[in-house]
Amino acid sequence: MEPENFTAKDLAGAVWKKSSRSGGNGGNCVEVTTDFPGFIAVRDSKNPHGPALIFTPGEWRAFLSGVKLGEFDE
C-alpha cells in the first residue's frame, strides 16, 4: 500500500507503540506503528481515532536523528 492511498481504516489493525520518552504525564504520548512496509504512522495517544501523520522510512530516520542531536530542544 502506498502512503498516499491509505485511509484511517487501513490503520485499524496496527500495533501502536508508545514513545520511550513518554512519562507519567497523564497520557500525553506519541505512538508509532511500523506495521506497514514503506511508511511509518505516528499518532497522539489521547486521540487514537484521530489523524495520523505518515512518514517514509527516510523521513522518519531524519526526524529521529534530529531528536537525538537535540535539534528540537528548546
Describe this structure in words.
The protein has 74 residues and is of the alpha+beta class. The protein contains 1 helix and 4 strands; from the N terminus they run ββββα. Strand 3 (40-44) and strand 4 (53-55) form a beta hairpin.
Which terms summarize this structure?
4 strands; alpha+beta; 19% strand; 74 residues; 16% helix; single chain
Main sheet: strand order: 1-2-3-4
Distance between the termini: 37 Å
The description of the largest β-sheet is: 4 strands, antiparallel
Shape: globular
Query: Count the helices. How many?
Result: 1
List SSEs in N-to-C order. EEEEH
Proportion of residues in β-strands:
15-25%
What structural category do the secondary elements indicate?
alpha+beta
Radius of gyration: 13 Å
Helix percentage: 10-25%
The tally of strands reads: 4
Low-confidence stretches: none
Q: Mean pLDDT, nearest integer?
A: 83
List the helices and strands and how they pair.
Elements lengths: L16 E2 L11 E4 L6 E5 L8 E3 L1 H12 L6
Antiparallel strand pairs: 1-2, 2-3, 3-4
Put the structure in a nutshell:
The chain is α+β, with helices and mostly antiparallel strands and 74 residues long. It is built from one helix and four strands, in the order ββββα.
